[in-house]
Amino acid sequence: MGNTMNYSQRFLIKPGSRVRLSDIDPDFKDKHESKKDALKLIERNDLRLRELQELLYAEHKRSLLICLQAIDTGGKDGTIRHVLGAMNPQGCRVASFRQPTSLERDHDFLWRAYRDVPAKGEVTIFNRSHYEDVLVVRIHDLAPKDIWIKHYEQINNFEKNLSENNTHILKFFLHISKDEQLRRFKERLDDPSKYWKISNADYTERERFGDYMKAFEDMLSKCSTEHAPWFVIPANHKWFRNLAISQIMVEYLEGLHMTFPPPSVDIDQIRKKYHAAKKKA
Ligand code: AMP
Ligand code: MG
């Protein structure tokens, strides 16, 4: 059944293709009417994700890097809660990309990304990522164009290098509409437990919504590669977003055909020791 969904193809940005976000429906929910309809599938994916992550950890051969990008309120935090919630915390990490510190600013923009890439057996989620350097940096002229324009190729080279060294990379762009963003702003205003998420910048950045979409389109068009694909996830419905991402992760990890490593000890010998110990007990 998982294969019939084939979300890895459906939401993939084909390397070399030109993305137009206005052609992609952020409201898409496949054949499901509601969260209730999809819940079984989501739960099944979560269980499978846990098994696959256990394999990755046990195998200790490769790592998985997940990059999340979205406009404000796009659902990065919720995605992280969901994906990480499904996995064993041992072996998973989140790295959040904020305004660079002065130390970070004194290095090239990829330095801080490199510092946080997953080690063998690990899964790391980038909450925002090195792509901020072709997004906020571009939109707010934080670096001149002749600098940020080079970042696309530098990012592709960086990711290629990682993938050739056994880091698997999946990148998810959470696609919400401008109306949905406004609804989510309202939700935050209506719920005191969400006040802490509100910032003035939300509204000034919203003014630049169109510029952000252009910058996202360039990022998706220039940097979706065989070795580090971008997926555009319809994300107006949070449950569909979770279904799609967990489904793509399961499809991808299953495709690696991982197996538990062979024992590093002679199991028959150890079994004898066990029986001897049991006799003495
Ligand atoms: P949040 O994810 O809500 O904690 O906000 C983090 C903020 O840091 C966002 O406004 C990002 O745009 C900003 N940010 C992330 N990376 C960079 C960067 N390289 N340069 C400038 N601002 C950044
Ligand atoms: Mg924010």
Summarize the structure.
The chain is α/β, with parallel strands linked by helices and 281 residues long. The protein is built from 13 helices and five strands.
Count all strands and give the number: 5
Q: What level of helicity do the residues show?
A: 40-55%
Shape: globular
Radius of gyration: 21 Å
- Indicate the proportion of strand residues: 5-15%
Counted by DSSP, the helix tally is 13
Q: What strand order characterises the main sheet?
A: 2-3-1-4-5
Give the count of structural domains. 1
Q: What letter string, H or E per element, gives the SSE order? A: HHHEHEHHEHHEHHHEHH
CATH fold descriptor: Rossmann fold
Largest sheet, in brief, is:
5 strands, parallel
Terminal-residue CA separation: 49 Å
- Supply the helix-strand structural class: alpha/beta
Give the SSE layout.
Elements (H helix, E strand, L loop, with lengths): L1 H4 L1 H4 L24 H25 L3 E8 L5 H11 L5 E5 L5 H4 L5 H5 L7 E5 L8 H4 L5 H20 L2 E9 L2 H13 L9 H7 L2 H15 L6 E5 L3 H17 L12 H14 L1
Parallel strand pairs: 1-3, 1-4, 2-3, 4-5
This protein binds adenosine monophosphate (AMP) and magnesium ion (MG).
Give an overview in words.
The chain has 13 helices and five strands. The chain has 281 residues and is α/β, with parallel strands linked by helices. The protein has one domain: P-loop containing nucleotide triphosphate hydrolases (Rossmann fold), CATH 3.40.50.300. Helix 3 runs parallel beside helix 12 and helix 4 packs across helix 12. The relative contact order is 0.21. The model has no long low-confidence stretch (mean pLDDT 96). It binds adenosine monophosphate and magnesium ion. Adenosine monophosphate (AMP) binds next to helix 7.
